[in-house]
Specification:
The two termini are 26 Å apart. The chain is 39% helix and 18% strand. Strands 1, 2, 3, 4, 5, 6, 7 and 8 form an eight-stranded mixed sheet that branches. Strand 5 and strand 6 form a beta hairpin.
Length: 294
C-alpha cells in the first residue's frame, strides 16, 4: 500500500567509483521532498549506498566517511599491488559489515537488487537474496581495485562491467516513478560547494597522501588528462578505460528503457578513485537532484 501524499519510487543507482557518494545526496533530497523509496536496484557504489539505505545504516556510513581521518582511509583501503587487485578490500568491508551486520536481503523493508558480473560465465548476475554484505561486496569489486568475491559457484566482480545503471530489475515494480542516478554525464559544469576550513584542510592532507602513493608506484593522479594524457600511469589508464567502457554501455542500456526522472552526475565531478571527496560529491548529488526534481 502506498503512503498517502507520497510518491513511491523505484530508485536505480549507477556505478562510477567515488562519484557514487553523490547517491547519498540524491537519497537525502528525495526523502526531504516527500518521496518514498520502495525499491532500489544498484550496481557497484550504487549497490553499496542503496544497500546501506535499505538496512537503515546510510546516515551512520555518511558520518563515518565525513569524519574519518585521512590516514585511516589509506589504512582501510589496504593499498597493495597484489595479483588480483590494487586494494585487498577486506579491512574496509569489515568496517561496512560492522554497520550492516548479518542481515539478509529478504529481511529488508524494501525491495533490493545488487547487480554483479560473473567473469567466468561472462554474464550479469542479479543478487536478490542472501547476505546483504556479500551482495554489496560482489557488486563493488571494481577490477584492478578490489579483489573478486566468490558466492556459491560464481566468481563475481563489479556489476558496472556489464550494467552500469541497472533499470531492468525495477521493471516489475508497482511504484509511481522510476528515478535513475547516472554518474557519467558529459556536463562540464562547475559546482560551488560551501566547504568548511576543516574539510578543506582534510581534503588537502589526503590528496597529498594519495599523490605520494601513486608517485611511489610510478602512477599519476593528474586530473587534467585531456591536455596531459602522457602523464597517465598504468593504473590511471586502467581506471579511465573502465570509466570509458561503463559510460558507453550505460548509454546503450538506457536506450532500451523509459524512466521518469534522470539525475545525472558529471563524470568530471571527481576522479573514479577519489574516495576522499565524499563531502563534495554528496553536495553535488543534492544539487543535481534538486535540479532534476524541478
Amino acid at each position: 500500500m502506498k503512503t498517502k501524499n507520497k510518491k513511491s519510487v523505484s530508485l536505480v543507482l549507477g556505478s562510477g567509483g567515488a562519484r557514487g557518494y553523490a547517491h547519498i545526496g540524491v537519497i537525502e533530497t528525495l526523502l526531504s521532498k516527500n518521496y518514498e523509496i520502495k525499491s532500489i536496484s544498484g550496481t557497484s557504489m550504487g549497490a553499496l549506498i542503496g544497500g546501506l539505505y535499505a538496512c537503515g545504516k546510510l546516515e551512520e556510513f555518511k558520518q563515518w566517511v565525513l569524519t574519518i581521518d585521512p590516514l585511516e582511509i589509506l589504512k582501510l583501503l589496504d593499498l597493495s599491488f597484489s595479483k588480483t587487485g590494487l586494494i585487498k578490500g577486506e579491512k574496509i568491508f569489515e568496517k561496512i559489515e560492522e554497520l550492516i551486520g548479518d542481515i539478509c536481503i529478504e529481511d529488508l523493508d524494501i525491495s533490493f537488487t545488487a547487480v554483479a558480473s560473473d567473469i567466468i560465465k561472462q554474464k550479469e548476475v542479479w543478487i536478490q537474496k542472501g547476505k546483504l554484505i556479500d551482495a554489496i561486496r560482489a557488486s563493488i569489486a571494481i577490477p584492478t581495485m578490489f579483489t573478486p568475491k566468490k558466492i556459491g559457484a560464481d566468481f563475481l566482480v563489479d556489476g558496472g562491467i556489464l550494467n552500469p545503471l541497472p533499470v531492468s530489475p525495477t521493471i516489475p515494480d508497482d511504484t509511481d516513478l522510476t528515478i535513475t542516478v547516472g554518474l557519467y554525464s558529459d556536463s562540464k559544469k562547475k559546482y560551488k560547494i560551501d566547504m568548511s576550513k576543516k574539510e578543506e584542510k582534510k581534503l588537502l592532507k589526503i590528496n597529498k597522501k594519495f599523490l605520494k602513493f601513486f608517485k611511489k608506484n610510478k602512477d599519476t593522479k593528474d586530473t587534467n588528462l585531456e591536455s596531459n594524457p602522457e602523464n597517465m600511469g598504468m593504473y590511471s589508464i586502467i581506471w579511465h578505460t573502465i570509466d570509458t567502457m561503463q559510460n558507453t554501455i550505460m548509454k546503450y542500456k538506457l536506450a532500451g528503457h523509459n524512466t521518469d526522472i534522470e539525475i545525472n552526475i558529471s563524470k568530471y565531478a571527481c576522479e573514479f578513485y577519489a574516495f576522499n571527496e565524499a563531502y563534495k560529491m554528496i553536495e553535488i548529488g543534492k544539487i543535481e537532484a534538486e535540479e532534476a526534481l524541478k
